[in-house]
Specification:
The protein is an alpha+beta fold. Helices cover about 30% and strands about 30% of the residues.
Length: about 120
């Protein structure tokens, strides 16, 4: 049984850190509580690609209408990495289809940690 105390598990393989999300953890519950009505939590960037190095940050996008950033200190202590959190509203995603396709492609190719993200409706 996976503990509700851990946000993820870490496994080292070759030169990479492999994280597995524990979506039943208190940390994910905390994010859902702080970011009420979130649509999806998406891991993207170097960690998603397995190209992370020791000083890499963890890029996480949250599709939500909420604008307030939650406190990430507890996540950074658990993961031993800085967490860069990006909050995107549905409206901002629509603007990215025209203005920032590279970022949008990174999100589309990310790993959905929680929720379901429907880009085209």
């Amino acid at each position: 049984m996976i503990s509700k105390k851990r946000a993820c598990t870490l496994r080292k393989e070759r030169d990479h850190s492999l994280f597995r999300a524990n979506t039943k953890s208190e940390e994910f519950d905390y994010l859902e509580d702080k970011l009420n009505h979130l649509e999806a939590i998406i891991l993207f960037g170097s960690f998603r690609k397995g190209e992370d190095i020791e000083r890499s940050d963890i890029d996480i996008a949250i599709i939500t209408q909420i604008k307030d950033m939650p406190d990430l200190n507890r996540f950074e202590k658990i993961l031993h990495h800085k967490v860069s959190l990006f909050l995107f509203s549905r409206e901002r995603i629509e603007k990215m289809k025209v203005g920032n396709k590279e970022l949008l492609n990174n999100l589309v190719n990310g790993i959905i940690l929680r929720g379901f993200w429907e880009l085209f409706r």
